[in-house]
Amino acid sequence: MQWMATCPHETVDVLACELQSLGIEQQNKFYRGIMFDCDLETAYRAHLLLRTASRIQRVVGKFDVSDLVTLQAALKKIIWPDWLRTHHAFTVRPTLADQSAQKLDENAIVTSVVQSIQKSAFEKSPPKFDPEADNPITIILFIRDGTCVLGIDTAGRALHKRGWRTSGHPAVLKETLAASILMLAGYTGHEPLVDPMCGSGTIAIEAAYIALNKAPLIHRGKDDFALEHLAGFDRPLWRRVGDQLRAQKKSGLSAPIYASDIKSDYVDVARACALRARVEKYINFSVTAFQDLEPPAPRGLLIANLPYGERIGAGTIDQLYKEVGQIIKQRFSLWRVALLVPSQAPIHLLALNTTKEISLRNGALPVKLLILER
Ligand SMILES: C[S@@+](CC[C@H](N)C(=O)[O-])C[C@H]1O[C@@H](n2cnc3c(N)ncnc32)[C@H](O)[C@@H]1O
Hints:
Layout: E1 2-6, H1 12-21, E2 27-30, E3 33-37, H2 40-49, E4 55-64, H3 68-76, E5 90-96, H4 99-102, H5 106-118, E6 137-144, E7 147-153, H6 175-184, E8 193-195, H7 202-211, H8 235-247, E9 257-261, H9 264-276, E10 283-287, E11 301-305, H10 317-331, E12 336-342, E13 356-362, E14 365-372
Parallel strand pairs: 5-6, 8-9, 8-11, 9-10, 11-12
Antiparallel strand pairs: 1-3, 1-4, 2-3, 4-7, 6-7, 12-14, 13-14
Helix pairs in contact: 2-8, 3-5, 6-7
C-alpha cells in the first residue's frame, strides 16, 4: 500500500525520521512530502502518531499526464468502488505544480474525475460530488513534471488540529511546527525543559506528548479521520492500534517541564489547552517575566518562540532581545537553547554564539530556529 505524508518543505527530514521510527524504510521524498509503502496497521499507527505531518493521503495511482485525454484514460482504470463509499460526498482538488501542468484546465480535470466516478459500477448510487458537504472526502491530483499522483486524503482535518486548542492567544504556533522544533532541538523527554514565553502552551504540550510517548492524535473523536469513511476501512484494526498506543503511554515524566509567560491571561489559556490535551498535571505553569526566571535545574533545554511584531507591554523588542541574550548567557550558561525567531527580528541583539541556524516557516512568515548546544 502506498501512502503520502505531507509537511512543509523545510521539515521533510524530521518527518522522514518519524516514519523511520515507525519502521517504514521504503520512503521517497517528494515535493513537500514523502511517499511511503506500508501495511494498513502501520499506516493506522502513522495517522495517530506522526507529530510533524500536515496531512496523509492514500495513493491511488501514479501515472503520466500530458493532456486531458491521457488523464481520462488513466482515470478509466481506477476501480472507484474499491476506494469510495456510496454515502459519503467527495470533492476534487487538483494541484498544478509547474508550468506544463498549468496548461491543463483545472475545471476540466475536476469534471473528468467526477465523471469517471459517476460512471463506475457502485452497488448503489455513486457518491455525490459536493464540495460544500460536511467534511467531504478529498481526492487530490498532484501534477508536476508530466506525472500525476492521485491520492485520497485520509486525515480529514489537518493533522495539526489535535483537538485541544482553545482561542485566547493571538500568535500561536501550529502544533506540528512546535513538535518539529522540539525534534530539531533533539528533545526526547529526558532533560528538564523550560518554555519561558509559553503563550498558549503549544511547545510545552507537544513536549509533554513526546516525553510521555503519547500519540498526538489519540484524542480525536470517532469518525474524525477521513480514512474512517473510505471503502476497506478496518474498524477492529483501527481500535486495536489505538488501544496499543494508549497502552504505550508512559505513566510519568523522567524530567520536568516548565512553562511560563509574563501575561497571566495567556498562562490561563495554556493551562486550559493542557487540560484539554490531558497533560496539564505534567506541566509546571507560572506567571513569570523571563527577566525574573531562575533555572529550575543545573542543565536542560530552554526553548522559546520569541515575540515580535505583537504588543509586548513595557519596553521595546530591541530591549527584550538584548535582555533575553544576557539572561541566557548569565543564568542558563549550561543549558541547551533553541529559540524560534522571525527572520526579520533583531537576532544580532541576542548576541549568542549559535551552533546551528535552521530556516523554517511559521505559516507564511520566514523564521529561524537558533540552536545553542552545550
Ligand atoms: C510568540 S508568543 C508565543 C506563542 C506560543 N509559542 C504559542 O504557541 O502559543 C510570545 C509570548 O512571549 C510572551 N512574552 C513577551 N515578553 C515576555 C517576557 N518578558 N517574559 C515572559 N514572556 C514574555 C508574550 O506574552 C507571548 O505570549
